[in-house]
Recover the amino acids of this structure.
């Protein structure tokens, strides 16, 4: 049991109102989640002001309101009104305190970077399991405990808000987990979602061109990533990324570097299946293509080494690593290979295309688009890269959100140059996928990029079910059936 005075004991605030000594049953910033005994934090959000929902929270049984600005003059309530300097920061503190500060009892590994967070967290989780360590992986694709996806009543977000995050850590602790591997997004870091999480190892993978609009520029985006370096007890940094190397100077703890650079602490030389760590070295094999996946593996290896495991104990397990859903997810039928990948930045799509081009025996056909209400500057660059590596490209809609899909496509097409015969525009994503697969011959590769694991299509008209992998399966089956309209789900095993 935690009483309201105990919750506020170490937090500067001013209080007015009655019934101050009540028991706290929960903390939330969403008035719809308020239950009797809850504290409602009236945070001002990007689109809504929590103060507008105070009356609803009181009606639902809130025992106190937390706010960081003057209370609306029209509001009258007898429950305690707690004024703090920053609602966002208080919410993080209070949720951690209410859950019993579980991060202090766990080994927390946080991964940030523009590309590769999901893959690296899953690689680390898989290696820990191989070492007999019980671990949970939390991120874009959900929550995995001991490698098995679990269902929790939490939002689908890369980095969870504090009111969901700390109770989840507590649940993992109660279930016997000792290690947590999580994705730390720039937005999650900049909005204090991890402010009261004790991070043992922070990993910085790369800095690319994404999310600049959300942070009002590249500098703010980089500053958000720096938060992890400042908070983590020790850090692991990609030495091949010059921006990351400069950022590492802000680390307060010891720093371990990985990369193809021979000066890196953990080195995987370009083109070699060899890991060098000090005087130790050893060969390894991965089941997936691409130098970027070798670097993802290097980040995971570095993490295990920092945690105290020996290189010779780690290497035998690398061949067992599997990519998470939507990351170079391979689907094949009758000699036609389709890859579904989340690549939605210039760096990511170039890395994937380069990897596939190196193993493609026939044509490389690429289907992709760009999300709406996101960084417009990357669109023509992604178009240019797609044409450079592909035999043909079909430009389509991704998640247009509130933007006109044709306007987004026009931005992409600028990167192709004039009179490019290798490019076709098909705004309907389902039709684009089917066109690409129906044209493919044995030996060809079709890449469907941008949405990966996602199960929805976000448009101005609403959010609708849509899965690139499922659409690819249907198209391959229809192709085999000679264009029959009969559809089947999962008619074969995905590799």
């Amino acid at each position: 049991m935690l009483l309201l005075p105990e919750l506020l004991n170490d937090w500067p605030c001013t209080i007015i109102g009655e019934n101050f000594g009540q028991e706290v049953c929960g903390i939330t910033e969403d008035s719809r989640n308020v239950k009797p005994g809850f504290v409602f934090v009236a945070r001002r959000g990007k689109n809504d002001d929590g103060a507008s929902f105070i009356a609803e929270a009181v009606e639902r049984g809130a025992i106190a309101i937390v706010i960081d600005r003057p209370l609306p003059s029209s509001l009258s309530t007898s429950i305690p009104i707690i004024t703090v300097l920053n609602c966002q920061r208080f919410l993080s503190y209070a949720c951690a305190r209410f859950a019993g500060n579980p991060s202090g009892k766990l080994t927390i590994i946080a991964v940030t970077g523009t590309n590769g967070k999901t893959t690296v967290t899953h690689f680390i989780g898989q290696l820990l399991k191989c070492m007999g360590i019980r671990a949970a992986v939390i991120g874009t694709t959900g929550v995995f405990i001991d490698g098995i996806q679990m269902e929790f009543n939490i939002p689908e977000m890369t980095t969870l808000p504090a009111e969901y995050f700390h109770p989840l850590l507590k649940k993992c602790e109660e279930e016997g987990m000792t290690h947590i591997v999580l994705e730390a997004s720039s937005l999650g870091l900049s909005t204090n979602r991890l402010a009261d999480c004790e991070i043992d190892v922070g990993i910085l993978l790369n800095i690319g061109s994404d999310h600049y609009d959300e942070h009002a520029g590249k500098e703010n985006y980089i500053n958000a990533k720096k938060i992890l370096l400042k908070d983590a007890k020790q850090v692991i940094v990609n030495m091949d990324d010059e921006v990351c190397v400069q950022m590492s100077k802000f680390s307060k703890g010891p720093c371990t570097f990985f990369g193809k650079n021979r000066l890196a602490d953990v080195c995987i030389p370009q083109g070699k299946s060899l890991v060098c760590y000090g005087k130790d070295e050893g060969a390894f094999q991965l089941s997936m293509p691409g130098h970027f996946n070798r670097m993802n593996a290097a980040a995971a290896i570095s993490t295990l080494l920092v945690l105290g495991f020996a290189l010779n104990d780690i290497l035998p397990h690398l061949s067992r690593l599997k990519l998470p859903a939507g990351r170079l997810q391979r689907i094949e039928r009758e000699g036609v290979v389709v890859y579904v990948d989340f690549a939605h930045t210039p760096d990511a799509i170039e890395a994937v295309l380069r990897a596939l081009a190196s193993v493609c025996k026939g044509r490389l056909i690429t289907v992709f688009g760009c999300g709406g209400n996101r960084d417009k500057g990357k669109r023509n660059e992604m178009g240019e890269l797609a044409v450079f590596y592909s035999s043909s490209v079909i430009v389509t809609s991704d998640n247009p959100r509130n933007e006109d899909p044709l306007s987004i496509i026009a931005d992409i097409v600028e990167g192709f140059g004039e009179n490019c015969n290798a490019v076709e525009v098909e705004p309907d994503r389902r039709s684009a996928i089917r066109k690409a697969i129906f044209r493919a011959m044995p030996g060809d590769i079709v890449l469907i990029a941008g949405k990966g694991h996602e199960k929805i299509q976000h448009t101005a008209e609403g959010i609708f079910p849509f899965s690139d992998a499922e659409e690819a399966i249907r198209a391959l089956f229809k192709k085999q059936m000679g264009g029959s309209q009969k559809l089947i789900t999962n008619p074969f095993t995905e590799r």
